[in-house]
Amino acid sequence: xxxLIAEDDPFSRKLLQRRLEKWGHEVVAASDGxxxxxxFNKEDFQFVxxxxxxxxxxxxxxxxxxxxxxxxxxVYTILLTAKDRKExxxxxxxxxxxxxxxxxxxxxxxxxxxxxxxxxIQLEKSLAERNKALEIANQRMKKDLEAAAKIQxxxxxxxxxxxxxxxxxxxxxxxxxxxxxxxxxxKLDKNHLAFYVLDVSGHGVSAAxxxxxxxxLLSANPEESNLLVRKLKNSDEIEIVPPSExxxxxxRRFPIDLETGQYFTLLYGVLDVDEKHxxxxxxxxxxxxxxxxxxxxxxxxxxxxxxxxxxxxxxEENVFSMNPGERLFLYSDGLIEATNPxxxxxxxxxxxxxxxxxxxxxxxxxxxxxxxDLTNWREGEPFDDDVTLLGIEVKA
Length: 396
Known about the structure:
Blueprint: E1 2-6, H1 10-22, E2 26-30, H2 33-42, E3 47-51, H3 59-68, E4 76-81, H4 86-94, E5 99-102, H5 107-154, E6 166-173, E7 181-189, E8 192-200, H6 204-217, E9 229-231, E10 238-240, H7 243-253, E11 264-272, E12 277-283, E13 288-291, E14 298-300, E15 317-321, E16 327-331, H8 333-336, H9 347-357, H10 363-378, E17 387-394
Parallel strand pairs: 1-2, 1-3, 3-4, 4-5
Antiparallel strand pairs: 6-17, 7-8, 8-11, 9-10, 11-12, 12-15, 13-14, 13-16, 16-17
Helix pairs in contact: 2-3
């Protein structure tokens, strides 16, 4: 090891230097604290052995400066002094010294203390290497999460379906890089609009992976049979799979994970834009908000267990008329369960109140009003859960 000695007594300094060099160490000797401090700033040392009482800068001050100066690796310090009172020991340790030896120094005791110091230095070195490796791994993981978040974001809807009599607006905010929530809407055919909001239990990578998997299943290519549409036999025509059957199929495919307890809730619907009615199924998801013309918005609670909870359950759908000017709002529990600094939830009643007050505004502004109220409710604090809100309006 490279050792720095600070000792104003020439005889003691030379004796100590020769002993340390005999033990195989590389030693630099300084005649006082100031000279030692100059050496310390120019070179790297793993060990500093300093006399306490020296002219100019004493050992306490030298130790304090060493502790306040960042270096590559830990520097182990030993103070040498004739003082042996308890108060002196405390003062020396509070300055940052690792060891405290009383003069005249016993060589065997010094050797033992140095061995202990070497073990600590090695442990500190190993810890620093592990921390560095961990930091590299964390940076790599952060980049991977950012890339995954961009992929997840790319799956969100980019534009409104081309229905002249339907207006849609939405808000989606993950609480972390990745979200367990997801939403989408798209044309199934020239007359039907599919829409959904889902929420996977938990947070992080596992929840996001399942939400992405579900987003791929809950998408429609009218030219192919899939979960949402199917081709009729001996025909190029397709039929739309009823929402209740979609939920039943998902329930069979995604039983609850007994090890992680992971499941998901879903609210899925199909809007017939010509007949102006919506068929909706709920699998344990918070009730949607229905806003009739010239009336107060209200929560409609739909029965149904989350997907995967019970394999024998049969989901049923509900039908709602959707006259011009009427709206549906789907949301995740992260919205209504968001709390303010006093622990009070935003709640369904506050959501309904905002939607009722803003019902004359375009649906984009109505959704933004809810988000503004929610942000104000949180008083600037980041969300603790993913927040999703989807609004759909039938126009004349």
